[in-house]
Amino acid sequence: MKLTSRSVSLVPIVATASAAALGAVLVVSAPASAATTLGAAAAQSGRYFGTAVAAGKLNDQTYVNILNTEFNMVTAENEMKWDATEPNRGQFTYSGGDRVLNQAVSNGKRVRGHALLWHQQEPGWAQRMEGSDLRQAMMNHVTQVATHYKGKIYAWDVVNEAFADGGSGGRRDSNLQRTGNDWIEAAFRAARAADPAAKLCYNDYNTDSINPKSTGIYNMVRDFKSRGVPIDCVGFQAHLTNTAPSDYQANLQRFANLGVEVQITELDISGSNQANAYGAVTRACMAVRACAGITVWGIRDTDSWRTGQNPLLFTGSGAKKAAYNSVLDALNAGGTGPTTTTTTTSNDPGPGGCTASVSLNQWDGGFVATVKVTAGSRALNGWRVTTTLSNGTVTSSWSSNRSGTSGTVTFTNVDYNGAVPAGQSTEFGFQGTGSGSGLNPTCAAT
Ligand code: XIL
């Protein structure tokens, strides 16, 4: 679709809640004209589009032409990892990493740093270490590498893949983890001290839906935010097969609601539904304001670490695939898809009461609603929010207990967000199909 105007308008809506209510609809339209490269299309909404780059391919002309034309963010595929940067303890080599970084910067691209601490691709000497000696070596590694690249990195994957797969929601066992559960926050603090300008991310895979692993990470990020541990972003690797989970966007949104940026960091998708799935992932990012950008894990299918699965946007000979067009179209559709509505319903916040307001992200066929519960002049011990869904159906919700899926849908606090100090707020959310308009949330203390 090609749009010729750019407009931002505020249109008042009529609220029908019983108590005093006010609201506004924010409609953000698409950019002036469709862009023809991934990077330029993403930039229209302030986002980036990146790729993993291997230093050894920087003299392949086809590779470099696509890299320079299409992408405006770069991640070194292996060159900034621990085994590459500190092959012997205390002896640092940055030749590969610098090569990738310098190629990117001299062509106007930004760089994501990947990765300071990871249980894989540890150098042999670190694999053989444990305890306080290892902890010291880990933190020195973070400090040295982040200092070498100080001021040059958009975002660092400070810690990669520290959570276990499966239902535990807990940490993965590794020699890093066995130095003490606080190793992740120690790493973030060391990285912040070394490079205060870089955004600091936690990065992982199998986190593409609301599942025990992503919820474990969500809980860690919430804890870090509440205790002032410096974390700015969460990376979702998104190594997918055939589809994006139906709650992909809702999962990104719940992290965004914690006050961190979300980034899709290593996207690749195999399977016959690839083009559709790439479109769905891109639309999900575009619909989440805090989704800063997307990085694909390689350029051509032949560059992929998933040998034989052809999960990327270009063929081995460098031709654009159907998946490329899906992504480009979704980036160019920009803000026209979702519209954001904010309604505030005031339910007499007086002593012991509460108010609920909803921020609605609506697109063709679905929505994500983020509801803010604010205590009145007395603290809440628990709350209940009642909403009306006349033309929509809830498919998932988070940070609340829910009863119902359409018509009158009621949400109550979960154990960690029932206590809200006077005048303070907490948030929960839900996503659904159809329309989320006319929710008119009302709040009651319980
Ligand atoms: C992969 C690289 O693409 C390969 O070249 C290398 O042999 C192994 O690592 N998650 C990550 C990435 O965070 O660093 C991995 O990259 C892919 C999985």
Describe this structure as you would to a colleague.
By secondary structure, this protein is α/β, with parallel strands linked by helices. It folds into two domains: 38-334, Alpha-Beta Barrel (TIM Barrel), CATH 3.20.20.80; 342-445, Immunoglobulin-like (Sandwich). It is 26% helix and 29% strand. It has eleven helices and 20 strands. The strands form three sheets. Strands 3-4-5-6-7-8-10-11 form an eight-stranded parallel β-barrel, surrounded by five helices. A hairpin with a 3-residue loop joins strand 17 (401-403) and strand 18 (407-412). Helix 6 (131-148) packs parallel to helix 7 (183-194) and helix 9 (248-256) packs parallel to helix 10. The longest helix is centred in the N-terminal third of the chain and has 18 residues, at 131-148. Residues 1-31 have low confidence and may be disordered. Bound molecules: (3S,4R)-3-hydroxy-2-oxopiperidin-4-yl beta-D-xylopyranoside (XIL). The site of (3S,4R)-3-hydroxy-2-oxopiperidin-4-yl beta-D-xylopyranoside has 6 residues, from loops.
Note the main attributes of this structure.
Immunoglobulin-like; 29% strand; 20 strands; binds (3S,4R)-3-hydroxy-2-oxopiperidin-4-yl beta-D-xylopyranoside; EC 3.2.1.8; disordered N terminus; TIM Barrel; alpha/beta; polysaccharide binding; hydrolase
What's the topology here?
Blueprint: E1 8-12, E2 21-28, H1 38-43, E3 48-53, H2 61-70, E4 73-76, H3 82-85, H4 95-106, E5 110-118, H5 124-127, H6 131-148, E6 155-160, H7 183-194, E7 199-204, H8 212-227, E8 233-236, E9 239-241, H9 248-256, E10 261-270, H10 274-287, E11 291-296, H11 322-333, E12 339-345, E13 354-363, E14 366-375, E15 383-389, E16 392-398, E17 401-403, E18 407-412, E19 425-434, E20 442-445
Parallel strand pairs: 3-4, 3-11, 4-5, 5-6, 6-7, 7-8, 8-10, 9-10, 10-11
Antiparallel strand pairs: 1-2, 2-12, 12-13, 13-14, 14-19, 15-18, 15-20, 16-19, 17-18
The chain binds (3S,4R)-3-hydroxy-2-oxopiperidin-4-yl beta-D-xylopyranoside.
The site of (3S,4R)-3-hydroxy-2-oxopiperidin-4-yl beta-D-xylopyranoside (XIL) has 6 residues, from loops.
